[in-house]
Each structure stands twice: as C-alpha cells, then as structure tokens.
C-alpha cells in the first residue's frame, strides 16, 4: 500500500529564485564587457539607446522631470556617446536596443511616486541574442505612465521590474492601467516582479529551464505567467491581482503560491506532462480555483484556503492530492488513471472526487467534514479516527 510522499524541500529552489531576482549582480562575473553605446533624445522626446554587437553594460538614470544620464557601469569597459542628451529631457518613450552580445541594461528613477505627470510614457527594451540582463527599478524604482515591454531574445536571460509603478491614472475607478510584459526566447531564463504595481503583468519565458518569481506585487487586472517546456519553477508570494493564470509545458515543474489575493476572481494552473508539483498555501482569497497537472506522477497540496468553486484534474500517472485546513464549498476532483492517493485532512468539502482507473486511496481524518457520497471509484479508504491526528 502506498504511503504519503514527503513534500519536496523547496529551500534550494527558493534560493535559486532569489539569486535570479534580487541578487542579479552576481551574474555579472560572466561578462568581459567592451561595447560602445549611443544615447540620444530625439525631437519627439524619446530617449533612444543603441548598443552594438559587443557586450554592453549600461545604467540609465531618469529623474522626475526627465533629465537623463546614461553611463557604462563601473568596471564594465562600456563607453557611451551621450552627446545627444545635452540640453534635453525625455518626455515620451524610452527605447533600448542592445543587439548582440551579453548585455546588461539597468534603468532607475528617483522612487516609486504615484505621478500621472511622470516624464516617461512607455519603455521598450530589446536585448537581442546573448545572455542578457534587463532590470527596471534597480534600487529607487521608477514611475511610467504607459507600458513596459521587455524582449530578452535567445540566450540565458533575466528580466525584472522592481519598485516601480506602471500606468498610474487615478481616474476615480481605475488606479493603474499600464501593462508589464517580459518575453524570453529559447534558453534558461528568469524573471522577477518585485514590489511593483501595474494594470496587468504578462511573463512568457519560452522553452528552457526557467524561473519566474512574483513577490509583493499587485495588478489592477490579471497576472499571466507562462513557462515553456523544461524543468521550471514559478513562485507567487504575497501578491494580488484580479485573476492569476500559470501555464507550463512538458518537464518537471514546481508551482508555488503563498498568500495570494485574487480579488474574488480565479486562479488557473495548467502544467504539462512530467512529474509536477503544485503547492498553494496560506490565505488564498479566490472565487474559482482550477488545477490541471497533465500526465506524470504529480503532487498537489492546497493548505489553508477558502474557495467557492474548485476543479482539480491530476491527469494520468500515480498522483497525490492533499487538501488541508481548508473550506471548499463546491469541489470537483478527478484523479485520472494510475494509482492515486487523495487526502482530505482537517477540511470541509462539498462536491465529488473520482478515482477513475487504478488502485486509488482516499484518506481523511476526524477533523474533516466529508459527505457520504463524496467519493467514487476509490478502492481503499483510510480514516484517521484519533482526534489527535487533526490540526
């Protein structure tokens, strides 16, 4: 008889994410930088920064009235022709094109002020091929009236938006309507959304072993996070949005959500084939929760949540699903083919659970409220009748 699988230790995974998101300076060791960059403000008020096919590493600083400084970062060897900035201020867009090479683009402002008169309208950042880093809001953050779009190209890239406000409008009904989009191509990419606010966030990291971190970030609209085929990790921590959609391709994926407020909207998680792990813990405030794990020996753990409607489909494989310390008003669980185990511990459930094919186990404890007709197509039933087996 199967015994309950031990949860994966996520410490190493979290450390990798924090390295990719917060401690990105450590990635600089790979660079032998000697590029040449030009920076101009054109007649339309756009700041245009162009690199060459060498390795470029630049810091772009913009103050709250549009004064701009573009410089090669200390020790990089990057030179900057900034004669096109003299006597001008940016009043519209920031456009960065780094072309080839292993590039670094760091953009900073004077802080996260909610300013409808911020000098920058939109940001368009393209790093081209190579192993690149692009960060908006390196330390002070920045306010942008419109959108931020990053195209990281092919290579092992990192894109981040930190301490920044995007699309502040304050029209009485909507506070933020700008979008943040980070797109990575083939390669082992990472992204970080950290202490930022926007209308919506969209991350698409493409194929490769990717890391996507969202922490202390809020969206007026939705968050959409997509990682392609490969062994991927997605962490969403202490954040808020009107809906969350996470998708991953084939591979061994880990999806972790902690303390997320969906503002009475939906959380939708879909992983591809592979031995995937989905963990949702602590204070999830959501109307509808959907989880689909595809083929493979998958593990789903939902702990300390309150959800009105829940749909879980574990797909084929020997799967384990655990529902703990939670209330589910209307839940539909499909375990799929394979030898599966379903735990309901210290929870209240109403709905149905179908074991489907295989030799399936249903395990519940004294502290749970489970209707008599809740299960179908389970072969084994284990009840922990000891009152001390509860919370």
Q: Any idea how many domains?
A: 2
Helix fraction bin: under 10%
Number of DSSP helices?
1
From the alpha carbons, calculate the radius of gyration and give it in angstroms: 24 Å
What is the typical, i.e. mean, pLDDT? 88
Q: Low-confidence segments, ≥5 residues, pLDDT <50?
A: 1-31, 387-391
| Number of distinct beta strands | 33
The share of residues in extended strands comes to over 45%
Dominant shape: elongated
Q: Roughly how many Å apart are the termini?
A: 25 Å
Task: Sketch the major β-sheet.
Answer: 29 strands, mixed
Query: What structural category arises from helix and sheet content?
Result: mainly beta
What structural keywords apply?
1 helix; mainly beta
How would you portray this structure in words?
The structure is a single chain. The chain is built from 1 helix and 33 strands. β1 and β2 form a beta hairpin. The chain is elongated and about 75 Å long. The chain is mainly beta. The N terminus and C terminus are likely disordered. The chain folds into 2 domains: 209 residues; 98 residues.
What is this structure, in a nutshell?
By secondary structure, this protein is mostly beta strands. It is about 5% helix and about 45% strand. Strand 3 (about 55-60) and strand 4 form a beta hairpin.
Q: How would the blueprint of this fold be written?
A:
Blueprint (H helix, E strand, L loop, with lengths): L10 H11 L14 E6 L5 E4 L6 E6 L5 E5 L6 E6 L9 E4 L6 E5 L14 E4 L6 E4 L6 E2 L3 E4 L6 E5 L2 E2 L12 E5 L6 E5 L2 E2 L1 E5 L6 E5 L2 E2 L3 E5 L5 E8 L3 E5 L5 E8 L4 E5 L6 E16 L6 E15 L6 E5 L2 E8 L6 E5 L2 E7 L6 E5 L9 E2 L3 E5 L7
Parallel strand pairs: 1-5, 2-6, 3-7, 6-8, 7-9, 8-11, 9-12, 10-13, 11-14, 12-15, 14-17, 15-18, 16-19, 17-20, 18-21, 20-22, 21-23, 22-24, 23-25, 24-25, 25-26, 26-27, 26-28, 27-29, 28-30, 29-31, 30-32, 31-33
Antiparallel strand pairs: 1-2, 3-4
């Amino acid at each position: 008889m199967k015994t309950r699988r031990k949860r994966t230790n996520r410490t190493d995974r979290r450390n990798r994410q924090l390295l990719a998101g917060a401690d990105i300076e450590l990635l600089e060791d790979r660079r032998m930088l000697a590029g040449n960059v030009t920076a101009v403000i054109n007649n339309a008020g756009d700041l245009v920064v162009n690199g060459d096919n060498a390795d470029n590493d630049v810091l772009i600083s913009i103050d709250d009235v549009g004064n701009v400084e573009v410089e090669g970062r200390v020790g990089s060897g990057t030179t900057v022709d900034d004669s096109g900035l003299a006597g001008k201020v940016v009043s519209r867009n920031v456009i960065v094109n780094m072309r080839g090479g292993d590039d670094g683009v760091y953009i900073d402002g004077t802080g996260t002020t909610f300013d409808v008169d911020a000098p920058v309208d939109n940001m368009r950042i393209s790093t081209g091929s190579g192993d690149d880093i692009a960060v908006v809001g390196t330390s002070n953050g920045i306010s942008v009236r419109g959108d931020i779009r990053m195209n990281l190209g092919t290579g092992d890239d990192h894109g981040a938006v930190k301490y920044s406000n995007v699309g502040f409008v304050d029209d009485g009904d909507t506070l933020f309507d700008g979008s943040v989009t980070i797109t990575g191509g083939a390669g082992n990419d990472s992204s970080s959304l950290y202490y930022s606010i926007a209308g919506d966030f969209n991350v698409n990291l493409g194929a490769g072993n990717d890391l996507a971190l969202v922490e202390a970030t809020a969206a007026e609209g939705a968050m959409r996070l997509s990682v392609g085929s490969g062994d991927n990790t997605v962490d969403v921590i202490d954040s808020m949005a009107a809906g969350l959609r996470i998708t991953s391709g084939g591979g061994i994926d880990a999806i972790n959500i902690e303390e997320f407020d969906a503002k009475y909207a939906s959380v939708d998680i879909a992983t591809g084939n592979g031995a995937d792990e989905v963990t949702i813990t602590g204070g999830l405030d959501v109307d509808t929760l959907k989880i689909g794990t595809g083929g493979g020996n998958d593990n789903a753990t939902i702990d300390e949540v309150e959800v009105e409607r829940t749909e879980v489909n574990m797909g084929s494989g020997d799967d384990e699903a655990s529902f703990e310390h939670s209330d589910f008003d209307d839940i539909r669980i499909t375990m799929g083919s394979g030898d599966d185990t379903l735990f309901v511990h210290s929870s209240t459930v109403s709905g149905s659970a179908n074991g489907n094919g295989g030799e399936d186990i249903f395990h519940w404890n004294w502290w749970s409220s489970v209707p008599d007709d809740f299960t179908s197509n389970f072969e084994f039933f284990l009840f922990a009748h000891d009152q001390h087996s509860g919370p």
